[in-house]
Design brief:
about 240 residues; mainly alpha
């Protein structure tokens, strides 16, 4: 359901952007993005603490500390080595400058790249598929709503077609997560979620323009907890 809401938000925002062809002023755009960024930052910290801190015998403890740090370090190293962020930007520039696509196709490609690339596009449907609610997808829907309005001013109705990409991409992840629930351990899910929340904190900082963090380069960190617990299950 969260993915459907996300797709509908993009479609609605596209037509609102088309209606207001003059677009939002840069001042208002920055204010909205900062508000959404600080909101995402605060919510992600709350989610992280909720999973990271546990109470045992009346005392506060943390768990999976080292695994979370190693996941972020190893994942960031892999992402930087592959240069995921750079490759995505290069792809976008090639599509924009070299393919000479008409506005309709440009809007579709630009929207697909923006809405379907990032931690939230992966973690949101996973969280929803595992029955943990669709809060993250609702936050993503709000961010995509603002972005879609801005894109629609330039590309027009083509941006709305990116909603199909959202349905296919995030819908597939949702279905896989729902099927995987049977063999994913609680520790695996908790650690994967906490690593993902750190990525969301970084994304909130990026939206607030406090620092240009290459969050895409950190995405491989999500694979480390899965590999760790898989190996533990085999050799542990």
């Amino acid at each position: 359901m969260g993915t459907v809401i996300n797709a509908l938000a993009v479609v609605l925002a596209t037509f609102i952007g088309i209606i207001f062809k003059r677009g939002l002023s840069e001042k208002i755009q920055k204010a909205l993005m900062f508000a959404l960024g600080i909101g995402l930052f605060a919510v992600a910290i709350g989610w992280f603490i909720q999973g990271f801190v546990i109470i045992e015998d009346g005392q506060l403890h943390t768990h999976h500390d080292l695994l979370i740090i190693l996941s972020l370090v190893i994942g960031s190293l892999i992402g930087a080595w592959i240069d995921i962020d750079g490759r995505l930007n290069t792809l976008a520039l090639r599509v924009e400058k070299k393919c000479h696509l008409p506005p309709l196709a440009k809007g579709f490609v630009a929207g697909t790249l923006i809405f379907c690339v990032g931690a939230m596009a992966i973690l949101g449907p996973i969280q929803d598929g595992l029955g943990q609610g669709m809060t993250l997808l609702l936050v993503k829907s709000a961010l995509d709503f603002v972005t879609a309005m801005m894109l629609a001013v330039v590309f027009g109705v083509g941006v709305a077609l990116a909603a199909l990409s959202i349905l296919v991409y995030q819908g597939s992840i949702y279905l896989l997560a729902a099927q995987a629930d049977a063999f994913l351990s609680t520790d695996m899910i908790d650690t994967l979620s906490m690593v993902g929340y750190v990525l969301l904190i970084a994304m909130g900082i990026k939206f607030m323009e406090l620092k240009d963090i290459k969050v895409a380069n950190m995405l491989p960190a999500l694979l480390v907890p899965l590999l760790y617990f898989f190996l533990i299950g085999i050799f542990g």
